[in-house]
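Feature request, filed as a ticket because there's no other form

It would be nice if the structure record came with a short human-readable summary line next to the tokens. Right now we just get the raw output. Example of a typical job, pasted below so the devs can see what we mean:
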Amino acid sequence: MDVKIVERTATPWVGFHLVGPFEETAPEGFTRLTAWAGQQGISGEWMGIYHGNPNKVAASQLEIDTVIGVEADFDLLPAAENGPHKGVLAGGKYAVARVIVEDGDFAKHWLTLFEQWLPTSGWQVDDRPCFDHYLNDGSQSGVWDVDLYIPVKK
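Raw output as currently delivered:
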């Protein structure tokens, strides 16, 4: 796995916040985001922002924001309950790896990063959330090109 350290600027976003097992909430959140973004006619970086370590937090308590990057001045009208909300993905140093997911098993690539690359990298995870950036829509083909980002510090 080829991993690079990059510096990202803070990224404003709009999206949906869900709580529960990632394998359930991520697809639901992206379905909602796809419908909403299509209605709004907006485009940008599609990302899943993960809150909570699945090895330490019960699956029912894991949190994800399924989001699309927007301009800082994006105007979001007050939303109904469970509607989209605004946030900002923190900037800073991230370890990033580009992966291809063909079997729907996103977790195995995250595990490779955390269990194989990280321990020998000389980097530590900091307190910002991990996220993935979807480079294509693999919902029809089943093949996803994804950049996985781990926030790091020395």
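Something like this underneath would help us a lot:
The mean pLDDT is 95.
The two ends are 20 Å apart (CA to CA).
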